[in-house]
Write a structure and sequence with these properties.
The protein is of the alpha+beta class. The protein is built from 9 helices and 4 strands. The protein folds into 2 domains: 4-85 and 203-210, Glutaredoxin, CATH 3.40.30; 92-200, Glutathione S-transferase Yfyf (Class Pi), Chain A, domain 2, CATH 1.20.1050. It has a 4-stranded mixed β-sheet with strand order 2-1-3-4, with helices on one face. It is globular and about 45 Å long. It starts with a strand and ends in an 11-residue tail after the last helix. Bound molecules: glutathione.
Length: 215
């Protein structure tokens, strides 16, 4: 029996990562939606601020532990619920997985986060078109390199033939890319692997449009 709650938002790609892992590990969890746009963003409410002073989703609670940061949450889940490990225990593959995951989670995703886009629009008077160009640019820079790295070590999945944290980070980032009309045909390896991953039930059930709070 678990007592896991995931605070997230259907379109949050960081929450999407955690949903995939919870599904792959077969863990039951409750969903507590945090609407990132309504009323100026529920992530800024007093109640959510208490949970995560960074005012970002996801947050996962499990019994008396409260954690933010999707990659830390996933490492926690791997340690406590070791079925379907997302990070290889050791060896070269472990570091390849972490490296690819960070290419997305540390280098691509933060530049396109909602608060960054809002700052561009509201404080730097950037137009909607310029903001979208910014969004696409950083994904394209990141995906161009990611594609080359996949040519080196991918198999069925990002690192060989074993599902990993790298795959868990890739699929939500592709969802964001498609939403902003990044020309995905430029990234055949990313497309090939993403198509395969999307057919896995744990990934399919985690998709934004499958979430109860999706609009
Ligand atoms: N590094 C964090 C990123 C969390 C994050 O950026 N969450 C976004 C949604 S994907 C968010 O809550 N944005 C709200 C905002 O920008 O105000 C993680 O991996 O959990």
């Amino acid at each position: 029996m678990t007592n896991i709650t995931l605070y997230g938002y259907w379109r949050s790609s960081a929450a999407y990562r955690v949903r995939i892992v919870l599904n792959l590990k077969g863990l039951n969890y409750q969903m507590s939606p945090v609407h990132l746009v309504r009323n100026g963003g529920e992530q800024h409410s007093d109640a959510f601020h208490q949970l995560n002073p960074s005012e970002l989703v996801p947050v996962l609670t499990d019994g008396d532990i409260t954690l933010s940061q999707s990659l830390a949450i996933i490492e926690y889940l791997d340690d406590v619920y070791p079925q379907m490990p997302m990070i290889p225990a050791s060896g070269h593959d472990k570091y390849q997985v972490l490296s690819l995951a960070q290419d997305i989670a540390s280098d691509i995703h933060p530049l396109n986060n909602l608060r960054v886009l809002q700052y561009l629009r509201q404080h730097l008077a950037v137009s909607e078109e310029q903001k979208d160009a910014w969004y696409r640019h950083w994904i394209q820079v990141g995906f161009t390199a990611f594609e080359q790295k996949l040519l080196r070590r991918s198999g069925q999945y990002c690192v060989g033939d074993t599902l990993s944290l790298a795959d868990v980070c890739l699929v939500p980032q592709v969802y964001n890319a498609e939403r902003f009309h990044v020309p995905m045909q430029e990234y055949p390896q990313i497309q090939r692997i993403t198509e395969r991953l999307r057919r896995i039930p744990g990934f399919a059930r985690a998709a934004p449009e499958q979430q109860p709070d999706s609009e």
